[in-house]
Description:
The chain is mainly beta.
Amino acid sequence: MATKNIVPNANGEGEIGTSSKYWSKSHINTITVGTSVVPDAQDGAALGTTSLQFSDLFLADSSVIGFGDDNDTTLTHTDGSGLTLNSTNKLMFNDASQFIQGSSATVLSLGATDEIDLTATAIDVNGTMDVSGNATFASNARIGSQSFPAFHSNRDVLVIGQKGNLSAIDSSGDIYLNNNIFVNSSGQDTAIAAGGTAQLRLSDSEILIYTGNSPGAGAAATLTPRLTISSTVSTFGNNIKIPDSGTIGCASTTNAITIVSGGEVEFTGGNHISGASSLRAQAKSGNLFLDTSASAQIRTNGTTTALTLDASQNAILVGTLNIGNGSASTPGLNFAGNGDAGFYNVGGDNIGFAANGAAVYSMNTDGITLESGKGLFVGGTGSANKLDDYEEGTWDPLPYYQNADDQGKALAAQVTANQTAGFYTKIGNMVHVHGSITWNISDAVGDIAVDNVGVKTLPFASANETNNFSAINFSINGANTIPSGGFTGELSANSTILLISSVAQSGNQGRNLGTGDIIVKFSCSYRATT
Length: 530
């Protein structure tokens, strides 16, 4: 029995036994191997037996255990982290259908033929969860830890697919599916939404249709009720639209009201409208039709007839008709087919009439006033039949001398107190004037120029026409000389002066009037410029 080392003659020489001559057993306390321990052939040796196993196996950092003839599966030690199964190989259980596998560099797969059973007091999933099948909860499901009212407040959220967010009230168990559905734990309140806007809400007492922000995480309640249906009444928050020729009715008469294309409303024969509210018809593009084959009546208080329409299309109104003020362009009371012709309220007690959108005349307790340029046609519609002006008033006549010196003396000596006055009446372009004027010239007769004299400042200039004949009468008291045939008068075209003339001589009557007090009375009818 050797008590010393057994060594070869040289490095790499010598064996303990051979492939055909080997030791049965070797009892060695510690074996130190310099390079490798290998079998004598591929798959030719085992490490331990089914009844004699090694106690522990110690491998260094980053060591690798390889499996298979081609080492296709390896288990590598990653220092400070753990063991790494290479590539997409699986760690299988029972058979190949149950496994844990790194499907890719970013995906870990957990597979089973029937089910995966996770048993723990709490299971914490961090990240999104995609459930392609049904999810069954034997107990309550709670997301987050806070209670919150429907349709608003920030909450913890679990996203389910691409359809919305599921949230739950902590204490009551109410469940919210953001943008889609909310179900109260008591079953008394259900809301359905689509496209981010709340659409329908069901409760134990009513059905409501909303528009506005959707329910769910972070949304503020800005909902507007559009339809509320309770056990007694349905309330609409906006317009009601039915198809052309659609009907509205009751249980016994389903077609009591028909709205046809164009907005016309038809009532089934024998039906009527009653009650405290008003019936309004606004004629934009549609009409309100009443059957007048016998006689149609509109009543107040259910019994008092306010308006009767008979078969001859006559309308009989009882009481007062109040209409809008309107304006000249859109009269309050107008005529069918001509909306810009009719009567309107000018203001106060003034009532106006307009045609073609323009004011024609107005009337009040004082009378009728024609607008500028308008007139009254008598006996025809031509310009010759148009009476477009009427005016009457007073004016101040003044003595006229063509000679400037005589003119100044006459004006200076004009007597006005109760002795000078002028009156006129203008009808159309015809002017009628009459009056009296007194003045005094104290010079000698020989000092008066043989020049034109008369009355000036007519209220309207005469027409600028060649043959503008006028009837002029003068009555002169205090004249120095009365010419043969007496005094007459002249009125030139486009003039405001009545000249004193005689039968024998046109104008130049200054010296004949002479000096002293001169009283001239006159009357004249002439054609004015306008």
